[in-house]
Amino acid sequence: MTVNDDSFTNWKNREEIAESMIPIIGKLHRERDVTVLLHSRSLVNKSVVSILKTHRFARQIGGEELSVTETLPFLQALAALDLGPSQIDLGMLAAAYKADDRGLSVEAFTAEAVAGATGANKIERGEGRDVVLYGFGRIGRLVARLLIEKSGSGNGLRLRAIVVRGGGDQDIVKRASLLRRDSIHGQFQGTITVDETNSTIFANGNAIKVIYANDPSEIDYTAYGIKNAILIDNTGKWRDREGLSEHLRPGIDKVVLTAPGKGDVPNIVHGVNHDTIKPDEQILSCASCTTNAIVPPLKAMEDEFGVERGHVETVHSFTNDQNLLDNYHKSERRGRSAPLNMVITETGAASAVAKALPDLKAKISGSSIRVPVPDVSIAILNLQLKRETSREEVLDYLRDVSLTSPLRRQIDFITAPDAVSSDFIGSRHASIVDAGALKVDGDNAILYLWYDNEFGYSCQVIRVVQHVSGVEYPTFPAPAV
Description:
The protein is of the alpha/beta class. It contains twelve helices and 22 strands. It has helices spanning 3-32, 48-62, 68-79, 90-99, 106-113, 138-149, 171-180, 241-244, 289-305, 349-356, 391-404, 455-469, and strands at 34-38, 41-42, 86-89, 129-134, 157-164, 181-182, 186-187, 192-195, 200-203, 206-212, 229-233, 252-257, 283-285, 307-317, 343-345, 363-371, 377-385, 411-414, 431-434, 439-441, 444-451, 475-476. The protein has an eight-stranded mixed sheet. Strands 14, 15, 16, 17, 18, 19, 20 and 21 form an eight-stranded mixed sheet that branches. A four-stranded mixed sheet has the order 2-1-3-22. Strand 11 (229-233), helix 8 and strand 12 (252-257) form a beta-alpha-beta unit.
């Protein structure tokens, strides 16, 4: 047998193993609300090839590929346990087991590592929490996709309604079509049908009522059977507490804004300050995509090296706020054609850092350039540190943060030397450290942070909503603090 034959046989064997993992992962998700991860990447509803590619990606981070032959025994051990709602990372389980020298079996080690999700320790599955989307644009539709994807057993977040202004004939059909197909993020993973008579979109079995209204005051959500719901405002029309409070209509308990909040509205970056949300807080903001991209790595660098001061320059994809062709705009430069120009503009991300990281005393300035790409941006974070370091030390530290720290869902790490912006479309992390571009000189470090300003940000929004709704399940093994 030739080397090529050996390689192909090995591939087919791994395909067979990955195929055997799919029903186990699906059953854990549907019946027990358990999400199986691999280095913070969900394996739920993934194909055979996607599972194999996710295992191979471990090479980018840890230096060597992770094989399905290594992770399958842990998955089988999980299936045999009486698990409660949780997120379990096979990559971390395999790494922790390899580092353990007690000689335990995979079954015994796994049971010990996830003990917090079994027996008397496990979380009881709740009834779920109603969610309403107010606005159905770029972020609204991606948040809808995520909510539908995460509906799982039906005991978590439930997308019950979308509020939009009437758009004429076949409005609901056109909106469903935009949910079904996206020029950047591709096809919706599942089936979508429309009941025009009852103004309802059915997506993977989820009945989503489309409510037409010009103002929040027109709606009584209880009339649609919606109660104690979290409303996600994707319009950005209201940014302060007074305006957002207009959403607190019958059936709505909390309001989450997908834009920077003004005044005393808490600006939340999940992974950094979500634990500061007061239980009785009804109005909060998820800040901006750029704030979510820079705050987690900024916190990581402050924790390890200290930060004296910094500047962030964002090279940002164009957005719907800009014009396709030159035309009047309230902002001078944003009136110029977005697909044809680089456009200097302002960013509030630097000033928003103070809200998310109030203990950071360093002065952070910021500026932004909009460029002719439809999605994925990069933040260049130039930091003066409180101590000298080396490129190797910073790389090793950020790699470890992306793998084992509480920020591993926010910070990703890539070593691919040929990575470009489109490679990060669909990334679920708030930002991705580009290892090859990192520069360090004494006490100066320059981080290049990619981020999908649409999808990655939407994932952060969902994490905040899960947290305030009480369905943010614990992750095992627990990350290093």
